Queue: 2 jobs
Job 1
Amino acid sequence: MKLPFLISVPHAGLNVPSEVKEICRLTKQEIIEDGDVGAADIYHPIKNSVAGFVATEVARAVLDMNRAENDRRKDGIVKTHTCWDVPIYKKLLSEEIIVTLIKDYYRPYHEKLTEISKEVRLGIDCHTMAAFGPPVGPDPGIERPHICLSNADGTCPQEWMWIISRCFEKVFNTNVSVNSPFKGGYIIKSHSHEIPWIQLELSRDPFLTNLDKGRCVLEALQQFVQLLDDPLKHVRKTQYTPAI
């Protein structure tokens, strides 16, 4: 039986769409380094074990699914610089191209999340994070924890956050940070009126192989749903009201 979760993997893609391919100045390695390195290896094998799974092939450097449509910062929805502050394009993108990217790639991603949310109990937006904060991060140069779980102080009930944190700590045998260095991005905030959402960040530090990280994530989620359905049934009845 599949776990009643929706897995979102917004930053594992590496493709540069044809609309901007000719003016993108990034090397393949720079495209890889701007995305969630290892995310595909960690999370994609979980696809057949959950009720819903949404990912994109588009590189984060080109289009960020975890940003609002009106976020036009250099690290916004359609970026001008990578998270390592490297310029992405040979010239400024036209508004026409930006609108096309959003219409053809970004909106369908979020429409899928909304549609699948009708059939699941929890959404989990899955990422990997640099072992040390990059220049545009909230913690530049600072060493990060192995695991960070976030609910933006309201996208998921606190009881659920406590339980899932304990499951990850037990399976990974490491401490779990909650809402630090990340409190949760656009995806969990914008879709929290549909179902509860959690953001998961795993450090790229090689404390485990990517294959083992994925296996541990699946095991932690299996333990989590068992706790929701058996000894802590009162949690299942918690009235969910998003705080954001």
Job 2
Amino acid sequence: MNSLFLRLPLLRLPVALVFLFPVFLLESLTPRWTRPYVGRPADIVLGALVACLLGWAAYRLYVRAIERRSAIEFGAQGAARELGSGLALGAALFSVVIGVLGALGVYTATGWRGPQVLVAPLAISVGAAVIEELLFRGAIFRIIEATLGTWIALAISALLFGAAHLGNENASWLAAAAIALEAGVMLGAAYVLTRRLWLPIGIHAAWNFTQGGIFSVAVSGGKTIGLLEATLAGPPWLTGGAFGAEASVVALVLCTALGVWLLVLAARRGNFIAPFWRRRSAPHAASV
């Protein structure tokens, strides 16, 4: 059976979901932003740590048992550089979004809270980033890409990533479409560029943390308590409305532009995979 899975990567996707989806479901059902700080910060940190460890263990178990290889997507060499680059990029990107919204007069900071409020959003952001990147880029994107190629895998995984946010509070089809286009494409492109998960995890975690933990903007529909006391008020197409700045046209333009730039860099490195019908002469490529 394992040889069949190796020859036909799409058959591995349902198996990968069996390993990873329960962890994703557990993480997504945990109250995160709408009731942000229920319980002690230590409990929230512990919960995020357990989610990360469960996700990492489930992914490694799947790769070892089904694909019969090591989880090179989590290789240690260069991990600090890629993760650090992702964290800096994600934080800078959302800071630019807020800077533009502030310049347009729809975001206003009115005060500060104590640094203790940073603990919970940091833990939550890291937990969400790790689990969602394992599922959407490590499994869904990578496995689809091995058969259907980079472009189709990018489109499918981005659409699924956007659709996964429809169950969030204050979600809408427009918000889900924005998530699919800006985040789904950008994070998929980050994986294609490095062929590892550290860069997209870093971007994802820093984006969420900077958004909610620093600027107190709703994260994917959930209200947050962050370092800054602030208001975001204006037309929904500009501010993102109750869903948060992720659904703003500003975030849509900036994140999509970054995603396109990352794809250009990945193409220059020759990191794109053609669909199986265009590479029959190189069947080994389908086992990526």
